[in-house]
Amino acid sequence: MGPFGSGVDGFEDTARVAYGGKAIYGARVGILMLEARFPRILGDMGNGETWPFPVLYKVAPGASPRRVVCDRAQGLLAEFLAAADELVRLGADGITTTCGFLSLYQRQIAAHVGVPVATSSLMQIPFIERVLPPGNRVGVLTISAASLTGEHLRAAGAEPATPVVGTDDGSEFTRVIINDEERLDVAAAERDILAAGDTLVASHQGIGAVLLECTNMVPYARALSERLHLPVFSIYTFVTWFHSGLVPRDFRHPASARCEWRAR
Q1: For 169-189, how does the pLDDT look when each residue is reduced to its tens digit (9 = 90+)?
Q2: pTM
Q3: What is the DSSP letter of 45?
Q4: H helices then E strands: how many in the chain?
Q5: Exposure pattern of 69-105 as b/e (b: 16+ CB <10 Å)?
Q6: Distance (Å, whole) CA 13 – CA 7
Q7: Tens of pLDDT along 210-238?
Q8: Cα–Cα distance for residue pair 243/20, rounded to 1 Å
Q9: Which domains does the chain possess?
């Protein structure tokens, strides 16, 4: 019997039949990218080496950081829908994005592509608050507190009154990302994020965990957690969870084993 031929007595060995239907295999998560040239260091979701699994990328033309963050991504829905379609055609089984402000498009993208969609790390807020001790709540760090509205939070399923602090007043991080500059002082960016974290816990009582709205803040999550002595959640925690559902770990359950299974 050949590897994909007939089995015993002419019956097909279905355990050795392969089926297609995708252009690319092994990459289950498709990432909608902003059109930007700023540095994406390790930890940034736009850096392919960040992920412990393969991902697919597609840039939405015209989706600059400033347009998406400061102008509410107005006029860009068609571009994001077309890019999401392309990712699904290529083989993505789930879609996410590189900007937390795209929570505004969660319903539209999910309805359009017909696969699970996780547009924004903000969508984690309700779950995180359920696991915190009574009296504790989530605080959000964002690239622009001036632009993050209650509408963004509601679209993510979060309370509009969720505490929010931005890096708007910092010297490096927000300026470089929003202006799409090609040079980033990483140490200065980290100082901006740590300072915003300090402000968050000092100005709001009961902060039990921090949620990073901005996907570009992930490289600094460990330093922030150590500074504040709090859990820090981000698009990285969200998408790794998301992926674990799209591709559950294979424990070789005996019901699907091809031979006798015994615990050792």
Answers
A1: 999 999 999 999 999 999 999
A2: 0.91
A3: T
A4: 9, 8
A5: beebbeebbebbbebbbebbebbbbbbbbbbbbbbbb
A6: 5
A7: 999 999 999 999 999 999 999 999 999 99
A8: 21
A9: 29-120+242-246 (3.40.50.1860), 121-234 (3.40.50.1860)
